[in-house]
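Dear colleague,

As promised, here are the two records you asked about, laid out in our usual form so they can be pasted straight into your sheet.

NAME FIELD: protein one
SEQUENCE, THEN STRUCTURE:
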Amino acid sequence: MTETTTNSSAMIEADGLSKFYGPFAAAREISFQVNKGELVAFLGPNGAGKSTTMKMLTGYLAPSEGVARIAGHDMFRDRIAGSQRLGYLPENGPLYPDMTPHSLLRFFADARGMATDYKNTRIEAVIELCDLKSVVHKAISKLSKGFRQRVGMAQALLHEPDVLILDEPTAGLDPNQIREVRNTMRKLGETKTILLSTHILQEVEAMASRVIMINEGRKVFEGTVAELKLVKGDLSDAFHKLTGAAV
């Protein structure tokens, strides 16, 4: 297993993470860390193992080998403590369609055992941050995909986590919706540590301090956006060269 040197400022750590399904390796010996205050892009073609790796980092999936840590907490052995520091937005995250954004946020706040005053303060704060005021009492089933993504983001932010793991937060959105979600992420990047999975290379260039790329379950690149461009001139060509896949 590949070892990663633990850094006191590391908020997300993958230490030799592997996940096997019989003979198939969805992820193999993936190691990296994201330090406090960084926004790091997590890239790779469909089926590369990005979502599997993210699920191991969040504790939703137990690794076959290796250790995932959030803010120093082993997400297999100490998941509850780690989850208190983590906000996770999965791709197409589950929402209850008959609820409104407000009732959904109250439900998750109660599930987390938030005190009444704190709960009300945080619900108001995330509604403001994610710009949900115009739809806060409308059924989620009636919302556009852009608004549903913002509801998912609000839920992930409700408990004031230090770390955000976002899996394709702009997938399937139109350009205006992408702009809105991107602006929200920029605000969050001022105070949070973020690992962002995306296929939109413009987002990477605009926001990411570093890039981690995987292909066929293995890490194939880690470095700055400028270093990635050195691979093949621009991000699209570099992506293709490293993964053998079209963007």
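NAME FIELD: protein two
SEQUENCE, THEN STRUCTURE:
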Amino acid sequence: MALAPLAAELKVLLALLRGQPSRGSHAERLEAFYAPQAGRYDAFRERLLHGRGELIADLIAARAVPPGAHLVELGAGTGRNLLFFGERLAALGQVDAVDLCPALVGEARRRTEAMPNVQVHEADACRWRPEAPVDAVYLAYALTMIPDWEAAIDNAIAMLKPGGHLGVVDFYVSAPEPAPGLVRHSALARAFWPRWFRHDGVHLDARRLADLREHLPAHQLTEALAPVPYLPGLRVPYYRFIGRKDG
């Protein structure tokens, strides 16, 4: 690795080791944590945040985002996930990318400034609403970072049109006794991963996935494991969820 990328990588690792501050508002904690690493944010997380491209492919396969559709990403960060749509992005009618962290919003605005159908909002995913119901909403590794995650799920579903789709990809751990047909993680995994991620403001448990399945019974779910940078041999659980709103 060249010296400049290595230095940037070390800056991200240092931020991760320091963790997210425990004081201040949610927006202030996010800014303090992400501002020093915003420029290297995407490159490091390409190796950590798996399944994002597959989630977008799932939305496309479900016909959730046809040409002219209105799409919302909550917890959009730097806007990197929009690039997984490729040429399809330009065919969408309107795209709203919402994030609470000013440093990441600035990166997203720079990335999307040549995309006329994309608007970036510095706002709370629990409260921001579009002017009219939308075709699809998704969150990629954002739900575990939102303190009031139940409000974020409720808000996402509320802004969907009848028949609209909600997509989520995120880390998690299973319940000790998961619902029939779902993966059961070991007691060690259920103890280790929540503690390891909590230091950086990421909160893993089984409740978010259970809440999504309860709110949107018509859904498809994929559970998987992914490698973690600098932790050889360890694989973190994550899921992809696509749910359809009644109507």
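A couple of things worth noting about protein two: The two ends are 52 Å apart (CA to CA). The beta strands are 70-74, 94-99, 118-122, 134-140, 160-171, 219-227, 235-244.

Best,
R.
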